[in-house]
Amino acid sequence: MIQKILVANRGEIALRVMRTAKEMGIKTVAVFSEADRNALHVRYADEAVCIGPAPSNQSYLQMDTILEVCRTLKVDAIHPGYGFLSENAVFARKVQEAGITFIGPSAEAMEIMGSKLGAKAAVKAFGVPMVPGTDTAIQDVKAAKEIATQIGYPVLIKASAGGGGKGMRVVMEAAEFEQQVQLAMSEAQSAFGDGSVFIEKYVGSPRHIEFQILGDSHGNIVHLFERECSIQRRHQKLVEEAPSSCLTPEVRKAMGEAAVNVAKACNYTGAGTVEFLVDEKLNFYFLEMNTRLQVEHPVTEQIVGLDLVKEQIRVANGEPLGYTQNDLEMRGHAIELRVCAEDPANQFLPDIGTLKTYTVPQGLGVRVDDSFEAGMAIPIHYDPMIAKLITFGKTRDEAIQRMIRAIDDYHISGIETTLSFGKFAMQHPAFVSGNFDTKFIERYFKPELLPQTEVADEIMAFAAGSLFTNSKQQAVTTATEQTRKSDWLRNRKLT
Ligand code: MV4
């Protein structure tokens, strides 16, 4: 039985994992870089060890240093979180060989799914729908061109070792094909050390829908329904929700079964995600499997009522799931907004700085997974995500209204964030109707359409500061004034 977990990660996910460990009576060990000395995950852990300088390749990616900490502190399991070493099969194997439990799938499953062609080959015998294309690496460009003509242009060239959109090229017509394949191969070789590329029919404006999977070490595999992740920019998701508003019960059932089959194809254990492209006719195609806990896992937790980290730990301990697919039900609707230190008014470029004010929304149906406090600086070395704001409601509409309220109650100054984009999305007719796809931002978003929030907050914080000095009575007046003035500021920008 796991008694002490080292969390090989930082930020909100490190805290997220430690909270569950604590509830289960399991001790926690944090590792941290020199940039994270004062980070909340370090304070929260029972023990914490500095493992190197700020750049992640000198700290959070140092496999042997992390394993050394495990030996010294008698750690019996590692949770890798997401990013960093979470999908590194070499690491999973080293952990296992050191006699430590890796809280995740086997190194073999990670290897199969780490290669897109490997994944296609593995699931082929399971009848999982895939986009028409080649299922082996292109050897003979002439032969590949014939296949491209058969499937019809546009086609997409993908790198087998790529992921999250890296190494993809759209080819519009036969005349460009050979040159594009050559470019894609040399690009893949230099980026991933593997020049294998394949082709697929290009699906125009797809939705991105993924299924949460859980498998135990006794061969039981279930899905925990889907997450709609179509609102993304440069392959970075910004808004996720569960369930998807476009799936019918029949399509959901078929996709869930396909997702379970993908997991069966690699004897999957633990929590994983099977990604699909869905076209406007609700045809769905398997894309890839992510062999980790995902950033957006909270929306699934909210609708199925399970703690996914707890399930991961139970399964890693060898316990059976204890429920079957028929026992699982979706209840209500959850939406997540990634609150990132990025400026939506300026092409979502990272905005660095210090959180001057930082207060989070509270109340019924609101969850904030973060790892910051007022006064903290956003480290430039890592991902710019500050927090995940999750709302839950009986219906999708309730979750949307709650998200708008929570965004208004979230006060951040000192840096620009994606909160204003979130409010734009929640109020957009396409989002509200549920009729949108991966082109949502490209099609509808313009900085001029951003609702004013942060600027107003900053001005009001300043105004309140200068008025608060006298009596309690005045403070009450100020609060009223504040409401009125911030309404005025908001309206001014909107009209
Ligand atoms: C596609 C596609 C269209 N047709 N494959 C992007 C990330 C990677 N996981 C696969 N991706 C895509 N694959 C075919 N055959 C369009 C995308 C794609 C996309 C997919 C999901 C979410 C957002 C996306 C944004 C651009 C392109």
Describe this structure in words.
It is a single chain. The protein is an alpha+beta fold and 495 residues long. The protein folds into three domains: 4-103, Rossmann fold (3-Layer(aba) Sandwich), CATH 3.40.50.20; 132-201, ATP-grasp fold, A domain (Dna Ligase, domain 1, 2-Layer Sandwich); 207-449, ATP-grasp fold, B domain (D-amino Acid Aminotransferase, Chain A, domain 1), CATH 3.30.470. Helices cover 38% and strands 23% of the residues. The chain is built from 17 helices and 20 strands. The protein has helices at residues 11-23, 40-44, 63-72, 89-97, 107-114, 116-123, 141-151, 174-192, 249-265, 297-304, 308-316, 396-409, 419-427, 429-433, 440-444, 454-467, 472-494; strands spanning 4-7, 27-33, 47-52, 77-79, 101-102, 155-159, 168-171, 197-201, 207-215, 221-233, 236-242, 270-278, 284-290, 333-340, 342-343, 349-350, 357-359, 366-370, 385-393, 411-413. The strands form five sheets. The chain has an eight-stranded antiparallel sheet, with helices on both faces. A five-stranded parallel sheet has the order 3-2-1-4-5. The chain has a three-stranded antiparallel sheet with strand order 7-6-8, with helices on one face. It is globular, with a radius of gyration of 24 Å. 45% of the residues are buried. The structure holds ligand MV4.
CATH superfamily of the largest domain: ATP-grasp fold, B domain
Give the C-level CATH assignment of the largest domain: Alpha Beta
Shape: globular
**Discrete helix count:** 17
Spans where pLDDT lies below 50 across 5 or more residues? 466-495
The percentage of residues in β strands lies in: 15-25%
